[in-house]
């Protein structure tokens, strides 16, 4: 197979076993699964797919794994290529629904690896589906390359998402970073000389969250989509176990023929006729304990809708998790051969860790005509503090 031209990494050489896996329906489905879900409603260029990202992750893994044995190198390259085959339509926007109904996270892909089209290829090359699954889950030594504290998965998606959204925060010197990744006592560690590149990666991720991953329009679209999916499942229009087998376009068409509410929501999304923010507040205005009510959001939505006198389903409550900063567990190998956690050697990393909570936002979304009424009720319900008007500057 000729090398594949990628806009991020240039020419990507394809091994025979990778070529065979690329030609399976399981991998080809990812051509029609957008990497950033409904984020293209904010950034029109964000139409890149899980297929491209999987290729990029494979490419980076192949660079890191050069010193491994032949068998380990094959396994980690395959794991990198297949690490996202468990994503449903619109990627992370369908992830919570899939997990709720199937108890599978998108990394739980063993059931897909054991399907004939994939298992036949793995058997041909003497590769165990269980081994690939464990690598993807990050449960093995070499699996840390794909799923670890600083892995090739996030390297590729940060660079790729930045490129396609036009947001310049994701420009990271990944080649220098990869050169300073080494195994030490069965763990991947970072050589001290790669610290600045690691800081650049972590800062890029921090800046991409409010600008791209948690942009309020993307959050609103995602909430509408998830609620429409949930109603479709409740109405027996949709079998949730099929979500990891279909793509964006298939689901989009199917939803147009579902119940009245789900079809209305997909029509609104397709035409960018979205709900609006009634409230959108951070921890400066609500107590941090509010995150524990995330699982009760359906009951809260129904109550706010009842108080506002509008139909249930037209109030959406979005209480995200507080972002985790797992990267603080990255170990740095110092010049004196001592191992230290990255937040013990980098002031910048400590600042990033402390700053994640400042970008957290809770949203309540509704139709434009109900915005003011819902805002008042939601503020009372969540005990949202009022923002004091800024005092005018006095001129001497």
UniProtKB/TrEMBL annotation:
Q: Name one GO molecular function term.
A: dGTPase activity
Biological process terms from the Gene Ontology for this record are: dGTP catabolic process
In terms of InterPro entries, this protein maps to: dGTPase-like, HD/PDEase_dom, HD_assoc_2, HD_domain
One Pfam family, short name: HD_assoc_2
Q: Domain HD spans what residues?
A: 50-158
Recorded hits in SMART domains, A to Z, give: HDc
Looking up PANTHER family in the UniProt record yields: DEOXYNUCLEOSIDE TRIPHOSPHATE TRIPHOSPHOHYDROLASE, DEOXYNUCLEOSIDE TRIPHOSPHATE TRIPHOSPHOHYDROLASE SAMHD1
- Name assigned to this protein: Phosphohydrolase
Report the source organism: Methanooceanicella nereidis
